[in-house]
Write a structure and sequence with these properties.
Blueprint (H helix, E strand, L loop, with lengths): L13 H6 L3 E6 L3 H11 L5 E7 L2 H11 L3 E5 L7 H11 L4 E6 L4 H10 L3 E4 L4 H12 L4 E2 L4 H6 L13 H11 L4 H8 L3 H15 L4 H10 L5
Parallel strand pairs: 1-2, 1-3, 3-4, 4-5, 5-6
Helix pairs in contact: 3-4, 4-5, 8-10, 8-11, 9-10, 10-11
Length: about 230
């Protein structure tokens, strides 16, 4: 999903236009000082533009619908509707929206809740700025990103064996690989020349067979089991 407002000039090639497109970001954190710091940091990067800020999950949901960002940088712990609840709601409403969880906490239980909510990336608030920028670009490009200091904790959650009795079909493996490559349901449908509803049905079967809550978790399981790369 790409909602950046890049205008192609007359005579400019699509490749040239794409190179000038900027990643649009919604910044969500209940602490003003954190938002101001991140905004100043990202202002140094011409390829990222903050299109909105929210101090709560409820406000974030409203802004996502109005601003249509490419990526949401989401604080986990906020009063009222927290980042995990807001992420679940956003993913249900816009499955192609990319969300990076931005947290000061590294508890395994909290990270797994965030993963189960449908988050695509995780960054610690005290990480170097290069880590945050890398995470935003990588997630916007359809890949997952985990802060290097969080990776061991998350990977340990996927070391237990899962039921592999229900093997994925060749078509399901093909679709799972396309999801791992960052394709949306519509892009998968166009590539396979099928309807979006057919793709959704396949994805539903993939989740059931892999005992996954959502596509990000299914991709992680598929990679761990060497079903895809």
């Amino acid at each position: 999903m790409n909602h950046t407002a890049s205008v192609q000039r007359s005579g400019q090639s699509s490749t040239e236009a794409d190179s000038h497109r900027r990643l649009s970001l919604l910044l969500v954190d209940d602490h003003l000082v954190v938002r101001e710091g991140v905004r100043r940091l990202l202002a140094q990067h011409d390829d990222i533009v903050v299109v909105g800020e929210a101090s709560s999950g409820t406000e974030a949901l409203e802004l996502v619908d109005r601003r249509r960002p490419d990526v949401v940088l989401m604080d986990i712990q906020m009063p009222g509707m927290d980042g995990i609840q807001a992420t679940k709601r956003m993913v249900e409403a816009a499955p192609d929206l990319r969300i990076v969880m931005f947290t000061a906490h590294a508890e395994q239980e909290l990270l797994m809740e965030a993963l189960d909510s449908g988050a695509d990336g995780f960054v610690l608030k005290d990480s170097e700025s290069t880590i945050l920028v890398q995470a935003l670009h990588q997630v916007a490009g359809g890949e997952a990103f985990v802060d290097p200091r969080l990776a061991p904790d998350l990977l340990r959650q996927f070391t237990s064996p899962r039921n592999t009795t229900n093997v994925l079909s060749a078509r399901e493996l093909e679709i799972l690989q396309m999801l791992a490559d960052g394709a949306s349901n519509r892009e998968v449908a166009e590539a396979l020349v099928v309807s979006v509803e057919t793709v959704k049905t396949h994805v539903k079967h993939i989740l059931a067979k892999l005992e996954a809550e959502h596509r990000t978790q299914a991709v992680a399981i598929g990679i761990r089991q060497s079903l895809i790369h």
